[in-house]
Amino acid sequence: MHAPCTARFVGQNAVHNDSLRQSPTDFAVPGACNAPLRSTMYSLLKKILFLLGAEEAHDLAAEQMARLQNIPSMLAWLENHYASRATVSPRSIWGLHFRNPLGIAAGFDKNAEVVSFLSALGFGFVEVGTVTLHAQKGNPKPRIFRFPQKRALINRLGFNNDGATAVASRMQGLWNTVKQRGTFQPPILVNIGKNMDVGPDEAPAAFEACFRIVAPFAHGIVVNVSSPNTPGLRDLQAPVHLRNILGRIRRARTETEFLTPGNHPILVKIAPDLSSEQLSDIAAVSLELADGMVATNTTLDRVGFPEGENQTGGLSGAPLFERSTQVLRFLRQLVGPAYPLIGVGGILTGRDAAEKLEAGANLIQSYTGFVYGGPSFPRNVLSELSGHGQAILGASTVNRQPS
Ligand SMILES: Cc1cc2nc3c(=O)[nH]c(=O)nc-3n(C[C@H](O)[C@H](O)[C@H](O)COP(=O)(O)O)c2cc1C
């Protein structure tokens, strides 16, 4: 017997209490609503989608999501069936309210085309991008590869995206719609990067220009210096470059008129393939010049994953879990209890989510888990997570205001 689903809309997403609010009552178990039926439907759909190449399947699914989210009754139905019970362990960070800690990681919605759909599935926040200043096609196809037995993906997309101006105008359209309809929209972070042909000396200016175009429409910005498929990008994690990029963006922030509420944090997304020394250096710069970190991006490492040895690109999903969690745990030690960290890499279940939170994440994200888990993924993870209340209560609290 399953509990009936009821729709719940929350009218606003900004609060000004910057403590991480958690109480045991936040962990009321969300009921399952026709869960077996939903899971059977997705198993069937997945069989069909997985007959296509990984990128073709993604594009087809995203196309349908974009169409469906334009039908208000469909969006309400999705909210009702998927998101209505997504209030699990809500928290307040950077003056923003997160109804739950689970976000969709960067790369799924590079161009801000399906934000409303993803929100209606119950994600607590959405990270759009990576967006670059100019539109670019990325690397030649095929460039995403599935490893279903291992719940893993390898991608070498190379920042295919529509460019900052197109993404900004799409987000402006989204905010207009949200205002018109009076609907709930969880926080949106925009992840920014550099175009392939931009060298290290020009990178800070390129990041700043991209920031100035997209930031007004975002609740926060993630500076991506960690994707492995853009030559030279990871070198920008070196303190001298990172300092320069963050310095310019911080200055630009003071001159930006934001359409969104909150403190507009600047976050740094890092790679898992870093030594302890490199991590310490990056953490020191981030503590000084950024408002949080995202750990981690995909890995180039293939240790324990021989299936992927012949495929270049970034590995995500289950084989990444351990390393990315180690990095997160180490970062938490480095930055202390009050600095916001987003944990990402290999979250496929509620147990994985709980482990990331225990390792020190204030918020968590997934991409590959969503690909294998389908539309019920956020709901299932959150439902399982609600059974780990004590573990989540053990996570650190966050009081840090953007500097
Ligand atoms: C197909 C694909 C595309 C991605 N694109 C981006 C991107 O554009 N920018 C970024 O910062 N991370 C990108 N990522 C990395 C994810 O955001 C995430 O950090 C990584 O996949 C680990 O999480 P997961 O194991 O839950 O997938 C991408 C991942 C995948 C699988």
Note down, in words, how this protein is organized.
- With 403 residues, the protein is an alpha/beta fold.
- The protein has one domain: Alpha-Beta Barrel (TIM Barrel).
- It has 13 helices and 13 strands.
- The strands form three sheets. The chain has an eight-stranded parallel barrel with strand order 3-4-7-8-9-10-12-13, surrounded by five helices.
- Strand 7, helix 6 (203-214) and strand 8 (220-224) form a beta-alpha-beta unit.
- The longest helix has 18 residues, at 164-181.
- It is globular.
- It starts with 34 loop residues before the first helix and ends in a 10-residue tail after the last helix.
- The structure holds flavin mononucleotide.
- The site of flavin mononucleotide (FMN) has 28 residues, from strand 4, strand 6, strand 11 and helix 11.
Give short descriptive properties of this protein.
single chain; 403 residues; alpha/beta; TIM Barrel; eight-stranded parallel beta barrel; three-stranded antiparallel β-sheet; globular; disordered N terminus; binds flavin mononucleotide
- Supply the CATH class: Alpha Beta
What is the ordering of alpha helices and beta strands? HHHEEEHEEEHEHEHEHEEHEHEHHH
CATH topology: TIM Barrel
| Share of residues in helices | 25-40%
Straight-line N-to-C gap:
50 Å
Radius of gyration: 19 Å
Number of domains: 1
What structural class should be given to the helix and strand makeup? alpha/beta
